[in-house]
Structures are given as structure tokens and as C-alpha cells.
């Protein structure tokens, strides 16, 4: 795979992220911006909780009949004059896209924001084969300039400060006057727009993702706030839609239900600025539109999740609410997770896609605070599924050895109360002695995981159970 | 007290392993509160609820410990736990551990009788009065499992409002995790501490000289981090405050008793 996976180095990545001052500033802004807006948007809509149930039910139903709805979708796309390509793997999907580009003699391809494109590492593949990919979503444009992966599924450049982006623009846009003022985000946006406008007009192929695929009509749906997706898909000779198989929903009505929870959960908007429905290529009477319309349906391991405890993960509509509310993501940002999908949804999905042997840290690096599940519009039990991954690691003995030994030793005592009680009394008495009369310990051998960051309170020196026994005895004596 | 509650409910107190080992006074505070509210309190032999095993992916150990707890507490009208985290494990997750019908039924009955302490006092016993005085301001941290698995939010605040002289100063983002997360705190210590730092800053910003919570795990983590940062804020379990023990040594303070 072209994209370098650093998930096994999650701990080192996280340590680096915690020491990265601009990143920490950006992450604070993320918290401030997304959480309050989502709350306000959901509180304004009395039926929001009922909508979440309806949204979950739509996806559960679709996943139970996924083959049916995917083939129905394919039939409708073909009827509308489009093409559907089935891609079992990331490599298949890359090949399909490149073949279309080559057939059309494409030199540049504009791109709307697509996480599937990131997942299959499409840009590298196109570049290596003589097609220049041009990201047109502002966030994606910025990280393309920097050669980075997105750090958030809806806000790819959220890890950057305005100053960092300004420096990148000055570094890359060398044809513009050096002394120009880029103090305002709006000025930078205008600069990017000006550059992208020419790229839109020059592109041979336009590639977008899809928020939903509608089986009833053979339609793909994208939501954006910049309108870049529309220019990407309307102007070139061909529009290629990259979508994973779980994006399909039965009807237009279903898609609108999901759209109502999507924008509110994602950005706190009632609706995204642009919601675009695309069905087939340009028809005879259409004033504009692409000459060809292709949908690449990517599996890449998802069908293996069907019928397993991980199936609910396929309900995900990629709103990013779980990222915004996750205390771990808030501190370490998306790049620490080491691949395309981070945050709580990535902690569940990434091990499926790149293997638990590589992504083992991700489902473990959670406090199980449950806030992700609380805000997930699709009610995906994310902590429960992270725990499933931990169960698989335990069963396959993929836990770090020290952790496994500690767990087994603790379990040995906890299962045997007759041994646990004297042993724990001895343990707390010893610990009390080690505190030398102080209230807490600043350091303790073999407890560096705790004491490296915090003091450990000295125990009372006896257990509650032992003290309670004495208390009951004393009470009985007093009553006699 | 509702109509189904026996005149003197027989309560089995599950103190949690952390209270048992680290801070027995929380167990005594819980027992006092329950006795003051008209319960008879007993402490059956116990080790741990099994949550560390459950969250480490070791279902077999979690199941064995669940069986052990269910068996030990079957004779009681109620099982009361001074921790939202352990109560959440016992009330919501035990039932997920068993495949056979007999144990599923036993776990179901156990779940129905199991309550977190403040929830039991307010929701079951309908306690309206607390015999405690504390002149001072405290802030309250919502533990995640209690909040999200058991819906505990108003109960501790309601009980604290009955403490004569006590003022509650709410912190910003009180529903945010403190970063403890059980084994997470030692497996990912730097991230855990970074999460705590936001929490401790919010605590300090209230100006309250004490933080109170319903889970000793969170409290040891928050107190330990504040002490490491040199913050002069005390930490106590909510049961201690409700039992009138707010002047005894706080977590991490020398205890000559």
C-alpha cells in the first residue's frame, strides 16, 4: 500500500502530538467549534432522537438486504446510462479508476472530498501513472500541498492553524505577489478558489465520493459546504464516484432522513450548503454535465463484517461527531491513529481494514467514556465494538505480555476470595509503610504507568472488609 | 420509599475493590447513609466486580467474577455500590456475559436489584433529608459510566443540596471524561494525563477548594494529577460529604487514624 501506516507506533505518535503546540491549539478550536454547534442544532429539533432511531433502522434494514439493494442500484445506474464497477480490493478500485482515466487520455483529475480515495491511496497511484490529481475541497487541497493524510473525516486539515496554512500557501503559490496579505481565512479561501477555478476548467475527469447511493433511482449524493463537488463532477468528460458498498440506501426518502441527522451531527448545520444528487451522465436536453458517469463500489473487507459483531459499524455515515467528542482524539488528533480513519470510528473500522496486528492500539486507546456512542446519530455502540477487538486480541494472545501477566495474576487472586483478602491486607499494609506517613507516593516500583503522571494516595493500611468486620464485632459487644 | 420497598430493606453493600483497598472510609460513609435511610447493611465477602477483565477482553474471568458477585449478593433485597462505574458493570454488563438461560435470568434479577449509591438513595428510597453540615463550596465531576450507563446526574446534586452550608459550583464541561479509564490510565499515561489537565483546569476555574465525585477511580486520578501539578484542591467521594465526613483527610492527605 502506498500510504504509510504508522498505527503500530500509536504511542509514539501520541506523545509527539501532545508536544505539538500548533496542533494543540487547533484541537482546542475543534472542540470549541463543533461540540456546542451540534448540541444547539440537535436541541432545536424536537424529533432528533426519533430521527436517530429511524436512521439506524434504515441502515440496519439495508445491511440485512445489502446484495438486493446494491444490485437494484446497479440496474438503475445502467438504466440512466452510467456504469457500475465492483471493486473487491483497494487495488481493484485503483485499477478501475486509472483505466477510465487512461481511456479518456486524462492528464488531470479534479477531486471532491472522498475518504474512499484516501483509503485506496488513489492520488499516489494516479501520480505514478501520469495523471495529476487536484484536490478541490479546501481542507484536502491544503493537506495535498503538505503531503499529509486527513486528520479528520469531515475536516481534513483541522489539525492546522491558520498560520501554518498561510506558510504553505506562500511556499507553493509562488506566482502570486510575496507581499500580499493573507491574515484572513477568507482571503486564503479566495486565493485557493482562484487557483482551483482554472483547474476545474482544465480537468479531464472529476472524482467525488458519495455520502449516499440511492437504490430506487441509481443516484449518488454528495454534501459539501464549498460547492467544489459540483464543479468537480459537472465540468469534466467523466464523473467517477468512489463509494464503499455500505453507502447504499433504499429510497430517496431514506436518504433525506439520513441527511437530516448527518449535517446536524457533523457541523451543527441543519443542512449542508450544497446537497447534490447525480443520476447518470449528461442527457441530450441537459445544459451541462459529464459525458460519462461511473460508480466504483468498493468492498475492501466490509462484506466480511456482515453477520459479525462489527456489522453495526457499517451504519456509519461519516459525520465525525465521535471524533469531536472523543477525549483521546481531542488531545492527540487524527494523525496519531496512523492511517486514514481515526477517532472512535477508526478505532473500530481500521483494524478491519488493515488488520488488528497493525491497529491493535486503536481500540485500546479509549477510556470507554461512552460519549462517542452518546452522540453517534446512527447509535453505533462504538465502545462495545472496541471491546470486541480487545476480546479478539485476548483470545489470540495479542496483548502485550506484561499486560497479560498482570491481568492473569490479578484474576488469579480476584477469583479466590480466601487468598485475595489476606493478600490485599498485606499489600495495603506494605504500601502504607512505603508512604512513610505521607499521604501519597510520588514514585512506586512497577507502578510507573501511574506515578509518572500523578501521585498515588497512600492506602489507609487496612481493607474496608477487615475494618468492617471489626466494626460489626464492636457493635455486637456494645449491644450486649 | 415506594410501596414495594420492605420496611427495613436488607442491603448488601458492594464497596468496590478500590474503596476496599485504598479508602475504606467511603465504605463506612455509604453504610452510614444507608443505615440513616432505614436500611440494614451487610457486607458479604467480595473481591472485584470484574470490570478490569471485561474491558481487557477477558470475558471468561469477567463471567467468573460476575457469578461470584451474583451468588454472594443473592440473599439481599438490594445491592448498593458507591461507584457509577462498578454499578454500571454490574447492572448493565453482567447480563451480556451469560449465554445460558439460568444465569441470564439470575443476572437479570441481580441487575434489577443493583443500584449506584446516590441513585439508590434518591430514586429508590426517596431520601429528602441528609444529616450533614459542611460550610464550603465544592464542584462535582460526573463520572462517565454513571452518567451515560445509569443516567446519574441529578441524584448526587440533589443530595448535596441537602448538606447544610454546602454550595455547589458547576465546572465547565462537567460531562467530559477525566481521562482515568481504568487500565487506560496506566497503558496510555501521557494521554490520560493530558485529558486530566483539561478537567483539573476546569475544576480550578470554579474557585471551589474541593472536587467531589461518585467514583474513587476518577477521584484518585484527578487528585493525584492535581497534587502533581501543585494545585491546592481537595478531592473526596460524594458519600463522604453526604455522611458528614468532609473534614476528615482528603484523598492523598496524611491520615493518622
From TrEMBL, chain A:
Protein's UniProt keywords contain Lyase: no
UniProt domain 4Fe-4S ferredoxin-type: residue ranges: 307-328
Pfam families assigned to the protein according to its UniProt record, in alphabetical order: Fer4_8, LUD_dom, LutB_C
Record keywords: 4Fe-4S, Electron transport, Iron, Iron-sulfur, Metal-binding, Repeat, Transport
Domain of life: Bacteria
Originating organism: Blastochloris sulfoviridis
Name assigned to this protein: Iron-sulfur cluster-binding protein
GO biological process: lactate metabolic process
InterPro entries on file: 4Fe4S_Fe-S-bd, 4Fe4S_Fe_S_CS, FTHF_cligase-like_sf, Helical_ferredxn, LUD_dom, LutB/LldF, LutB_C, NagB/RpiA_transferase-like
GO molecular function, a single term: metal ion binding
Cross-referenced SUPFAM superfamilies: alpha-helical ferredoxin, NagB/RpiA/CoA transferase-like
Coiled coil: none
TrEMBL record, chain B:
InterPro entries, alphabetized: Cys_rich_dom
Signal sequence extent: none
One of the record's GO cellular component terms: cytosol
Sequence ranges assigned to domain Cysteine-rich in this UniProt record: 11-91, 138-222
MF terms (GO), sorted A to Z: oxidoreductase activity
Pfam families linked to this entry: CCG
Protein name as annotated: (Fe-S)-binding protein
Amino acid at each position: 500500500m502506498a500510504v504509510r501506516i504508522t498505527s503500530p507506533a500509536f504511542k509514539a505518535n501520541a506523545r509527539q502530538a501532545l508536544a505539538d503546540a500548533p496542533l494543540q491549539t487547533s484541537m482546542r478550536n475543534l472542540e470549541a467549534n463543533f461540540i456546542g454547534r451540534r448540541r444547539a442544532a440537535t436541541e432545536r429539533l424536537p424529533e432528533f432522537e426519533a430521527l436517530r432511531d429511524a436512521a439506524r433502522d434504515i441502515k440496519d434494514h439495508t445491511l440485512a438486504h445489502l446484495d438486493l439493494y446494491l444490485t437494484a442500484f446497479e440496474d438503475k445506474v445502467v438504466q440512466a446510462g452510467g456504469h457500475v464497477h465492483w471493486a473487491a480490493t483497494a487495488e481493484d478500485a485503483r485499477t478501475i479508476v486509472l483505466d477510465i482515466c487512461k481511456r479518456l487520455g486524462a492528464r488531470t483529475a479534479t477531486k471532491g472530498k472522498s475518504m474512499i480515495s484516501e483509503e485506496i491511496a488513489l492520488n499516489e497511484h494516479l501520480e505514478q501513472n501520469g495523471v495529476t490529481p487536484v484536490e478541490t475541497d479546501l481542507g484536502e487541497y491544503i493537506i495535498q500541498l503538505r503531503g499529509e493524510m486527513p486528520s479528520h473525516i469531515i475536516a481534513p486539515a483541522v489539525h492546522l492553524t491558520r498560520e501554518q496554512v498561510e506558510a504553505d500557501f506562500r511556499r507553493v503559490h509562488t506566482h502570486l505577489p510575496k507581499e500580499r496579505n493573507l491574515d484572513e481565512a477568507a482571503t486564503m479561501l479566495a486565493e485557493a478558489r482562484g487557483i482551483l477555478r482554472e483547474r476545474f476548467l482544465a480537468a479531464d475527469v472529476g472524482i467525488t465520493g458519495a455520502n449516499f447511493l440511492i437504490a430506487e433511482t441509481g443516484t449518488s449524493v454528495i454534501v459539501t459546504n464549498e460547492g467544489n463537488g459540483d464543479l468537480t463532477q459537472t465540468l469534466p468528460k467523466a464523473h467517477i464516484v468512489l463509494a464503499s458498498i455500505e453507502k447504499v440506501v433504499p429510497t430517496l426518502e431514506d436518504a433525506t432522513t439520513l441527511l437530516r441527522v448527518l449535517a446536524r451531527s457533523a457541523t451543527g448545520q441543519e443542512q449542508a450548503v450544497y446537497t447534490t444528487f447525480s443520476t447518470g451522465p449528461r442527457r441530450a436536453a441537459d445544459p451541462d454535465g459529464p459525458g460519462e458517469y461511473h460508480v466504483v463500489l468498493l468492498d475492501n473487507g466490509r462484506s466480511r463484517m456482515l453477520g459479525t459483531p462489527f456489522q453495526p459499524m457499517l451504519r456509519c455515515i461519516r459525520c465525525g461527531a465521535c471524533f469531536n467528542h472523543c477525549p483521546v482524539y481531542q488531545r492527540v488528533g487524527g494523525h496519531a491513529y496512523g492511517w486514514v480513519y481515526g477517532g472512535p470510528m477508526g478505532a473500530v473500522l481500521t483494524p478491519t481494514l488493515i488488520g488488528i496486528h497493525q491497529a491493535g492500539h486503536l481500540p485500546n486507546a479509549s477510556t470507554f467514556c461512552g460519549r462517542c456512542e452518546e452522540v453517534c446519530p446512527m447509535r453505533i455502540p462504538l465502545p462495545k465494538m472496541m471491546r470486541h477487538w480487545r476480546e479478539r486480541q485476548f483470545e489470540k494472545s495479542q496483548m502485550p505480555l506484561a499486560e497479560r501477566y498482570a491481568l492473569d495474576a490479578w484474576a488469579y487472586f480476584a477469583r479466590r476470595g480466601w487468598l485475595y483478602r489476606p493478600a490485599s491486607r498485606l499489600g495495603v499494609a506494605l504500601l502504607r509503610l512505603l508512604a512513610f506517613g505521607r499521604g501519597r507516593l510520588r514514585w512506586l516500583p512497577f507502578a510507573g504507568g501511574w506515578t509518572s503522571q500523578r501521585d498515588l494516595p497512600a492506602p489507609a493500611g487496612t481493607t474496608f472488609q477487615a475494618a468492617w468486620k471489626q466494626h460489626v464485632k464492636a457493635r455486637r459487644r456494645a449491644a450486649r | 420509599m415506594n410501596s414495594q420497598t420492605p420496611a427495613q430493606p436488607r442491603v448488601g453493600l458492594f464497596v468496590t475493590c478500590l474503596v476496599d483497598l485504598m479508602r475504606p472510609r467511603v465504605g463506612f460513609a455509604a453504610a452510614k447513609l444507608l443505615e440513616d435511610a432505614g436500611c440494614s447493611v451487610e457486607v458479604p465477602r467480595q473481591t472485584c466486580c470484574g470490570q478490569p477483565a471485561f474491558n481487557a477482553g477477558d470475558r471468561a474471568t469477567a463471567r467468573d467474577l460476575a457469578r461470584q458477585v451474583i451468588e454472594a449478593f443473592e440473599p439481599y433485597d438490594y445491592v448498593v455500590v458507591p461507584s457509577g462505574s462498578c454499578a454500571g458493570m454490574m447492572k448493565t454488563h453482567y447480563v451480556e456475559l451469560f449465554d445460558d438461560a439460568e444465569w441470564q435470568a439470575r443476572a437479570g434479577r441481580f441487575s434489577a436489584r443493583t443500584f449506584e449509591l446516590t441513585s439508590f438513595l434518591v430514586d429508590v428510597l426517596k431520601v429528602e433529608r441528609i444529616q450533614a453540615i459542611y460550610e464550603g463550596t465544592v464542584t462535582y465531576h460526573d463520572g462517565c459510566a454513571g452518567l451515560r450507563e445509569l443516567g446519574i446526574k441529578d441524584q448526587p446534586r440533589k443530595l448535596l443540596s441537602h448538606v447544610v452550608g454546602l454550595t455547589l459550583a458547576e465546572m465547565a464541561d462537567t460531562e467530559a471524561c477525566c481521562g482515568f479509564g481504568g487500565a487506560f490510565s496506566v497503558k496510555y499515561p501521557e494521554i490520560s494525563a493530558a485529558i486530566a489537565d483539561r478537567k483539573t483546569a476546569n475544576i480550578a476555574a470554579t474557585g471551589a477548594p474541593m472536587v467531589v465525585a461518585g467514583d474513587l477511580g476518577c477521584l484518585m486520578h484527578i487528585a493525584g494529577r492535581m497534587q502533581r501539578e501543585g494545585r491546592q484542591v481537595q478531592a473526596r467521594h460524594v458519600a463522604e460529604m453526604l455522611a458528614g465526613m468532609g473534614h476528615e483527610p482528603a484523598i492523598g492527605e496524611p491520615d493518622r487514624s
